[in-house]
Amino acid sequence: MTDLSSKQALASYAAQIGDNGLIIGHRMSEWCFRAPSIEMEMALMNCALDLIGQARELYSYAATTEGNGKTEDDFAYLRDEQDFRNALLAEVPNGDWGDTIVRLFFMSAYNMLFYTALAKSTDAELAAIGAKSVKEVTYHLRFSSEWLIRLGDGTEESHRRVQKSVDDLWMFTGELFTMSEAETALLADGISVDVTGLKKDWDQTVSRVFDQATLTIPENNWAQSGGKTAGRHTEHMGYIIADMQFMQRRYPGCEW
Questions:
Q1: Residue 213 contacts residue 146 (beta carbons within 8 Å)
Q2: CA 222: distance to chain centroid?
Q3: Is the residue at 198 inside a domain?
Q4: Is residue 256 part of a domain?
């Protein structure tokens, strides 16, 4: 049972998916002018634009579904921190190059499976967004996998540092496979994706790439959670919101 109506659940679900794209896309955009090389910067910015573009489509659909005059900008710029339902993994700091690559790899491996499943949704709009997004996240997964292998199977220093990145971020991956209230409410009608069923294939993807990267999967499976299901975020989320929403909050209704 759920307290959400079908309309509310659909709008919440679309916004929830969009939150993941917006927040990690914003995080990755912070590498602009800071990446190790022009080539890597362009690759990351392309990934960031893809993710933010996915968020825009999902927010627009959420706004249309709610039908109360909201736009995609309301979801991005006029919600408080606790209203966002992104996974905590999306909001953790960029750290060094290894941290960013590991986070992108974990999210991309998940997104590849998630959007492939979403493309089969009984909701035509979500299915279309899923099908389009699969093409984009295919590149994200390839890019992050190749870099993970390069770092893990590179020098002793690169291996040590990227293994530490894996160990530090691993606790945020379990939340990806928990069901939110909106996901549960829409599952019976074939609208949402049963993310619990993605875990096995995600593990296989991670194991395959880790084998090539000579990296070790952490044994501790304790999972940090709360962002996706309850809007309880890390201490870093408030800074993201303050940065991202400053112009709209300072000058309400401003437009480019």
A1: no
A2: 20
A3: yes
A4: no
Please state the separation of Cα 220 from the chain's center in Å: 22
**CA separation (Å) from 192 to 113, 116, 123, 155?**
13, 12, 9, 43
Q: Residue 175's pLDDT is what?
A: 98
Give exposure, 79-105, as e/b (b: 16+ Cβ within 10 Å).
bebeebbbbbbbbbeebebbbbbbbbb
**218: Cβ–Cβ under 8 A, 6 or more apart, which residues?**
166, 167, 170
pLDDT at site 2: 46
What whole-number distance in Å separates Cα of residue 132 and Cα of residue 97? 28
> Does residue 230 lie in a domain region?
yes
User: What's the DSSP call for residue 175?
Assistant: G
Q: What is the pLDDT of residues 156-190, one digit of tens each?
A: 999 999 999 999 999 999 999 999 999 999 999 99
Cβ-Cβ contacts under 8 Å for 118 (sequence gap 6 or more) = 17, 126, 127, 129, 130, 133, 193
Instruction: Look at the chain and report how many structural domains it folds into.
Output: 1
Q: Output phi, psi for 95, to 5 deg.
A: 65, -140
% the chain with pLDDT above 70: 98
